[in-house]
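Re: that chain you flagged

S.,

Sorry for the slow reply, it's been a week of failed gels. I finally had a moment to sit down with the sequence you sent. For the record, here it is as I used it:
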Amino acid sequence: MKRIVGYLFLSCLFLAGCGTKKRSTLNKGETNSVSNRSNPPEGNYPLPPDQGRFKFVPTASPEEYIQNFSGIAQAEMQAYGIPASITLAQGLLESGFGNGPLTRKTNNHFGIKCHTGWEGDYERHDDDARGECFRKYNHPMYSYRDHSIFLTTRSRYASLFELRKNDYKGWARGLKAAGYATDRKYPQKLIALIERYRLYRFDSEVLGEEFTVTAGLASSDVGGHSVHEVQAGDTLYALSRRYYMTVEELMQINGLDSTEISIGQLLKVKPEKVKK
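Prediction finished late last night. Pasting the structure tokens below so you have them in one place:
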């Protein structure tokens, strides 16, 4: 938790030095409402005031993105109950680890469109259709806060909050089922990111639990199974033969809905009788 507090303290200092000149594409009469909704319904985690100047925060790699934003994702989890692993995975995916074209223009790390009632800054960007309206923020912190508000204030996401806070697979599938993204592989992509970068460890820290899954080829014990990190060329069929399992068994113990797997994804496998 010291890391979370430290991140927020540094963020306050950073934002305090951003200046006061506002760069805006608002329509007449519109205002940026994110900083006016900065207090969560529970907890003691208010955002620092918006200083009114757009500040892009570049990142050189997914690992640097995680280092930069894991603290705020954990703080949002404490305040709003959204798993930090899910928030980080969505941020990584939707923003191109902080360097996508939309994110560079808007600091919008979650691909949230304007929608009815949005009164803040915005930019037009081609997505599912040409020139769609996307929310714009002066700093990524406000994007993270608005992501929490977005999920907690819309009824279609209410069922997610009945899931366990460490059930990242359930949350990933629930987001797709609720219509967050049109990509049919959205859950698998989130899960692959969470498992590749072990983002579930941030949930465990907030919940005060031990996390035991580690990356590597058949290297750790998870409920009587070892873990295989998917490599280029791996298929479920090839892995089933390697670990003396059926494809159906692999799918069942890993909660897979299809036979598609991604490089870096961690799969539970049998620890004994590994074929070389």
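What I noticed first: Strands lie at 122-125, 132-135, 226-229, 266-269.

Talk soon,
D.
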